[in-house]
Design goal:
The complex is a heterodimer of chains A (114) and B (110). With 114 residues, chain A is mainly beta. Chain A contains no helices and 11 strands. Classes of the chains: A mainly beta (114), B mainly beta (110).
Chain lengths: 114, 110
């Protein structure tokens, strides 16, 4: 596709449920990032992949959060045992090179934990 | 730790005005700075990317400047239109990941 694609666009989960969020980056983009955006705030970094390697996961808020990119293209962000504070928009971005190049964002997945 | 601040948090102007949005950052060791636009309920749209070696970038009615030494960037919007109403975010990158400000919400009134 022409841009970064995320699915689902909206997800409502009951507290304690596991969820999986998908990101399809722009074809050929080496770098893939996940961000979390709370209402009225700027996005905050969660984790970064260069191809299939997860080089930085310092922003993941707890061990309930897990991300993978097994073949260096599609990525999945998984949240186990969701809690209300996990409610946010989860944004995926990709860029052609690891550093210094423009980042392109998907439309995001809005997660609501009830 | 890099911190990014955007001022003002919100801005309302009449159509046709020229305006400036401000962004400041605490660590000048950056690779680049990027300005984004975010419409309600949407993702981020990249507006301008300024590399650390550049001083400014222009796209249509938008002009972004970068002063690395003072840790500041401005986004200038000329002849504002109601369609420019959105939240504008600046972000700096020094290790690949982006560090964002909290954004400036702009309303342009017809």
């Amino acid at each position: 596709g022409a841009g970064v694609s995320q699915s689902p666009r909206y997800k409502v989960a009951k507290r304690g449920q596991d969820v999986a969020l998908r990101c399809d980056p722009i074809s050929g983009h080496v770098s893939l990032f996940w961000y979390q955006q709370a209402l009225g705030q700027g996005p905050e970094f969660l984790t970064y992949f260069q191809n299939e390697a997860q080089l930085d996961k310092s922003g993941l808020p707890s061990d309930r959060f897990f991300a993978e990119r097994p073949e260096g293209s599609v990525s999945t962000l998984k949240i186990q045992r969701t809690q209300q504070e996990d409610s946010a928009v989860y944004l995926c971005a990709s860029s052609l090179q690891p550093q210094g190049t423009e980042a392109f964002f998907g439309q995001g997945t809005r997660l609501t934990v009830v | 730790k890099q911190e990014v601040t955007q001022i003002p948090a919100a801005l309302s102007v009449p159509e046709g005005e020229n305006l400036v949005l401000n962004c400041s950052f605490t660590d000048s060791a950056i690779y680049n700075l990027q300005w984004f636009r975010q419409d309600p309920g949407k993702g981020l749209t990249s507006l301008l990317l300024i590399q650390s070696s550049q001083r400014e970038q222009t796209s249509g009615r938008l002009n972004a400047s970068l002063d690395k030494s003072s840790g500041r960037s401005t986004l200038y919007i000329a002849a504002s239109q109601p369609g420019d109403s959105a939240t504008y975010l600046c972000a700096v990158s020094n290790t690949g990941k982006l560090i964002f400000g909290q954004g400036t919400t702009l309303q342009v009134k017809p």
